[in-house]
Automatic annotation (TrEMBL):
Membrane-spanning ranges: 20-50, 62-84, 133-155, 167-185, 205-231
Membrane topology qualifier: Multi-pass membrane protein
Location relative to the cell: Cell membrane
Domain of life: Bacteria
Keyword Transmembrane listed: yes
Methyltransferase is among the record's keywords: no
Family indicated by similarity: Belongs to the AzlC family.
Pfam families noted in UniProt: AzlC
Protein name in the entry: AzlC family ABC transporter permease
């Protein structure tokens, strides 16, 4: 994606925080859910918060807690966690062209989540290279702290929240899908991306409806990729922004 770099209207760190604020609507509810589930699975409040602080891997944390609670061997827990996070192997090369030669980028990648990748891949090309590390630090730090805070809230007061407001339990499963939806909609600004996203979504839904939920997501991703490159190489009008 090529973009002309534009100067930021505020300091890079503040701009990063501002751009990441919409993520909180998805992060905090899911983190609350994780905190509650972790404590119910036998982990202490402190252990639960440390998991979110150091593992910080969304779905992998739920798997980690479930496998440990069921008595799975440590080596299997580690392998499964790494497999779920293997998508970061794709994230890295896509962000690499926009990263400066600064040693701080290495440890900062602890804050790279699916959502941070999505906004970083859009925003980093649009800003001067000297502003990128500050922007990323602000965005990733806010997301990380919100995840830790939500986890702590769920671990400490999750049961009481669910009892007082039962509707929360019904809403939580939709928080993260809604967040991803908000992140991908701005991509539908040309034919190529619109067909790609619509095709992937339709494929996933059809596979789910016809009884193939386990392959729905990877198969949909493949269909979306095929549609993207088919339009790219056929050069359909309006396929590129």
């Amino acid at each position: 994606m090529s973009s002309i770099a534009q100067p930021l209207s505020m300091t890079p760190w503040k701009q990063g925080v501002k751009d990441a604020i919409p993520l909180l609507g998805g992060y905090i509810p899911v983190a609350i859910s994780f905190g509650l589930i972790s404590v119910q699975s036998g982990f202490s409040v402190l252990e639960t918060i440390l998991i979110s602080t150091f593992i910080y891997a969304g779905a992998s944390q739920f798997l980690f807690v479930a496998m440990v609670a069921s008595g799975a061997p440590l080596w299997l827990v580690i392998i499964m966690t790494l497999l779920i996070n293997a998508r970061h192997v794709v994230y890295g090369p896509n962000l690499a062209p926009y990263l400066t030669k600064d040693a701080r980028w290495g440890p900062l990648m602890h804050g790279l989540t699916d959502q941070i990748f999505a906004i970083a891949h859009t925003r980093l090309p649009q800003m001067p290279s000297e502003s990128r590390i500050g922007w990323y630090t602000g965005a990733a730090t806010l997301a990380w702290l919100s995840w830790i805070g939500g986890t702590a809230l769920g671990a400490i007061a999750g049961d009481e929240l669910m009892q007082r407001w039962p509707l929360i339990n019904e809403v939580l499963p939709f928080a993260l899908p809604a967040l991803f939806f908000v992140l991908i909609v701005p991509r539908c600004n040309n034919l190529q991306w619109t067909v790609t996203i619509a095709g992937a979504a339709a494929s996933a839904m059809l596979l789910k409806v016809f009884g193939f939920p386990n392959i729905a997501i990877p198969a949909a991703a493949l269909c979306g990729a095929l549609a993207f490159y088919a339009l790219k190489f056929t050069g359909k009008p309006g396929a590129h922004s």
